[in-house]
Amino acid sequence: MSTRSNSRTRDTKRFLEKLSGGPLTFGGLLAAIREAEGATQVDFAATLGVSRSHMCDIEKGRKVVGAARAARFAKILGYSPESFVALALQGQVVEAGLKLNVSVKAA
Fold it and tell me: I need a surface site. Which of 8, 45, 49, 97 has the fewest CB within 10 A?
C-alpha cells in the first residue's frame, strides 16, 4: 500500500470519526458505507450474507466480527482488507479493556 493510500485512509478515518463524534468502530464503518450507498439494512445484510438482525447488531456494536469475516466483508464491498481487519481487531482489543492500538499491514 502506498503512502498516499495510507494518508487517504487516515484522512477518511478522521473524517468519519468527526462525523460520528467518537472513535470509528467496525460497525460504524459498515453503517457509514451502507448509508452512503443508500442501502437498507436488509439489502446490505443480504450482500454480506448475514441476517438483517445480525447486521443491526454489528452496526450497533453488539456483535463482534472476527478478522476473517472482516476481510471477507472488505472483499465483497471492494475495500481494503487491512482497514477492515484493523477495525475489527481494534474492537476486540477495546472490548477486552486493553489500552492498545492495532495496526495491520499486508504480508
Answer: 97
* Other CB atoms within 10 Å distance of the CB of residue 89: 19
Q: Is residue 102 part of a domain?
A: no
Q: What is the CATH number of the domain that holds 82?
A: 1.10.260.40
pLDDT at 8: 62
Q: Is residue 31 part of a domain?
A: yes
CA distances from 92 to 15, 24, 31, 38 (A): 22, 13, 18, 28
CB of 82 within 8 A of CB of 13?
A: no
- Could you report the per-residue pLDDT of 6-33, keeping only the tens digit for each? 566 667 667 766 766 678 899 999 999 9
What is the C-alpha separation between 78 and 21, in angstroms, rounded?
Answer: 26
